[in-house]
Amino acid sequence: MNFDAYARMGVDLVNARLDDLDDLRALFPDDSAWMREEASDRDVAIFRRAQKRLRDVFDYGTSGRDAQAVTELNALLEAYPVQPRISGHDSSDWHMHVTSRGASVSAEYLAGAVWGLSVWLCEYGSARFGVCADERCGNVYLDTSSNCCRRFCSERCATRSHVAAHRARKRAAVGEQVSATATADALTPVT
């Protein structure tokens, strides 16, 4: 089983827009056409609740509250239990699924996402769960850096944040220069 792929499903869910059924269908990977076809409005509500709870897991991990992250993941594992089964269409493509045959869209997707994030936490620790440092973003990510130093969900957010900080420093420097010139002008006696 590719646990990283399952963990990334959790990241994708937390970062997804879930306003309606079309948004939910857009969340599913290309190889999950059956999920797009069988998804219902009921699934949208279930996914929204799970999305909020998984967001909490990332917030707990990012702020060093490991025990709360584990408690929430354990509760989610109970709500969306893993029931592994072997599946395939012929003897050359056997692979594992995380739920029993006939599981609902939400049960299948959420069992995989929660299982993947749980394995990720056990393997790497909750400090590897990140929330983007760009305050305009808020997306979550899994920190795969070698020294656990990632701060942004993407290069785009990192660049945008660094450019904004650079511009703010420039404005502050210009403002200090203008202020210093005005102060000097005010202190210079008029002759």
TrEMBL record:
Zinc finger CGNR domain mapped to chain residues: 128-170
Top-level division of the source organism's lineage: Bacteria
Protein known as: CGNR zinc finger domain-containing protein
Pfam families: ABATE, zf-CGNR
Spans traversing the lipid bilayer: none
InterPro entries in UniProt: ABATE, ABATE_dom_sf, Znf_CGNR
